[in-house]
Amino acid sequence: MTSQESTKIFIKDPNKTYGLMELVDGTSPLVEKVPEDTVETFPHYFLLMIICTLSVILALFLLSLFFDAPLEDIANPLVTPNPGKAPWYFTGIQELIHYTDKPVIPGIIIPLLLILWLVSIPYIDRKPKTRLGTLFNRILVGGERRKVLILLFTSFIVGALIFTLIGSLFRGANWDFVLPWR
Amino acid sequence: MKKGILQGISESAVWRSIFRTGIPDTDLKKSLFIFNSFFLHIFPVKMKRHGLRISYTFCLGGISCLLFILLTLTGFLLMFLYTPSIERAYFDMQALALVYNGKILRNLHRWSAHGMVLTVFLHMVRVFYTRSYRPPREFNWVIGILLLILTLALSYTGYLLPWDQLAYWGITVGTTIMSYTPIIGKQIRFFMLGADEVGHEALLRFYVLHCVVLPFLTALLMAIHFWRVRKDGGISDPL
Known about the structure:
The structure holds two protein chains of two kinds.
Chain A: H1 3-9, E1 38-40, H2 41-66, H3 91-98, H4 104-124, H5 131-140, H6 147-169
Chain B: H1 5-11, H2 13-18, H3 27-35, E1 46-48, H4 54-57, H5 60-79, H6 89-95, H7 102-129, H8 138-160, H9 165-178, H10 185-193, H11 200-231
Helix pairs in contact in B: 5-7, 7-8, 8-9, 8-11
């Protein structure tokens, strides 16, 4: 909790004098601060962390026990697989490239713009100070409830999900549409 | 009062020379237990109760960090069994089947890597929807985006190392996309591969990037990321 937040609740009135009113039984060493809703990291958080860690490790071991990492034939520049696919996290871009004959747009420009936009999110979504700022805020963020920003971000997530899924699962030879269960 | 064995050990001079705090049975000792420990000192001694709610964080940042540690450990072991040359790389991968638990080691590394790409991305999604990037946490969001890019780069450079068809053509497709960059596209591809085609030079470059350069950068940014979480006031407040 920042000091700003705590002073909101306990405003010191310079016209009043303060004295010791009561001794309170407690385990917290906090003085002159708002009672915080905190717990000791040890053991509360560590218990959670250990459970989480062990579950993830167990899940990974089970996964590794039953599913082998793929290893195809040795690399051969003379044998081009059809289709040649990028790793799954880039198949969305590959799928986008398929729709256009200008691969620079989905391949380079869109990813770069996306990164720039993601980086700038905290600098776009701030409390506006000027009237122009308020206008920009309304267009780019959508006010205090940031409806525009949430809409844009959610479309980005859903779009990335859909194109990645299509690119990695529903594309076969010559990048034709196939059903993965056929 | 009779002392238990544990208490006896924890009060002995040798134990106390290593761990300064005894059994953490009071609030003060619980704090010192974390405060005095090299490994735990990045944690706060107290934290907000809502930060423990799984439905707030889904532990995604923590799981990403855990996966990075697991990947480092399995990566170290795999480095003992792997040679970055086009004559040997593929056969080293096949030979893993002969190494005691070699296959499990590779599977763990592979699935953890895919998992880390997923959890880092989902961590970003979580931070967005909880609006945790707001001041004073703006720059930590930027570091987080850089970490996402580094995670993708780590995964991508590792993708070539098995030197099978999947790796070779995955990297060929990816670096071809890079070559679409206007004006300097060809140069970027050449810089990445060290040659015009994916070959020995590319394998060596990707190996050094994957095992040294990118993990070091990632660890450094992770340290700053965690440090800033503390400096910016711990876990963000709910909306």
